[in-house]
DNA sequence: AGGTTTTGCTACACTTTTGGTAGCGTAGAT
DNA sequence: ATCTACGCTACCAAAAGTGTAGCAAAACCT
């Protein structure tokens, strides 16, 4: 036992926030540099602006995204998270090979 | 250029599937061993059985979860993904400290 | 065998979230 | 003044998720 209640654990906050549509994708799309609202939107398969705006607010509140002069960009933490996504990307490729030969 | 279209890339499949509610959480909750449907359900804050069932099917199709004698458990790939989540957990704690001191 | 429990899971009505389109208000360039 | 690009809001439709009740099958007891 001696575990903190789930809701207080940072990982739970992450699993919950990032387990929402477009959250991870947005970070993924920002990894190569800042993007403006509309550009980011079309990079994310044309996600609706209302949702995009909501996600951006959430990600800013979590400290992953910030407004820069070139549009929206990743913060230090955002970059760090993006790096984890790149590792996941490599993992995903191996996983995919295993799946379908 | 020379990038594959997004939809064909494994990472996109992952970002899309795991970017759904409870997907990551389910894997997280299964990391300590198999769990039966109802136990898993209450571990996941009482997620509704319809959604849980849908998620389990998806995760099984992706090859992360399988039916074992003790309930639902992680496959090799599932374990591997769970290991990544544990790393994310450690990362999340550092991130949390940075945020709120 | 008969009865109780436990199990995975479906059905259904309801709420929340997301999708899709139109377009406003501001700012800068012409 | 006009045009363009911008972030973003409003609106409604569609999809996804919630919450509760409960069924059918299997497992567990006498």
The CATH homology group name of chain A: Winged helix-like DNA-binding domain superfamily/Winged helix DNA-binding domain
Give the DSSP E fraction of chain A (strand runs of 2 or more residues). 5-15%
Counted beta strands of chain A: 2
Q: What fraction, in percent, of the residue positions of chain A are helical?
A: 55-70%
CATH topology of chain A: Arc Repressor Mutant, subunit A
CA radius of gyration of chain A: 15 Å
Biggest beta sheet summary of chain A: 2 strands, antiparallel
Shape, principal axes of CA atoms of chain A: globular
Largest interface: A-B, 34 and 34 residues
Low-confidence stretches of chain A: none
Task: Quickly give the CATH architecture of chain A.
Answer: Orthogonal Bundle
**Count the helices of chain A. How many?**
5
Which class do the helix and strand fractions of chain A yield?
mainly alpha
**Oligomerization category of the chains in this entry:** homodimer
Our measurement of the CA-to-CA distance between the termini of chain A, rounded to an integer number of angstroms, reads 42 Å
* Mean pLDDT, all residues of chain A: 93
CATH class of chain A: Mainly Alpha
Strand order of the largest sheet of chain A: 1-2
Question: How many structural domains in the coordinates of chain A?
Answer: 1
Order of helices and strands of chain A: HHHHEEH
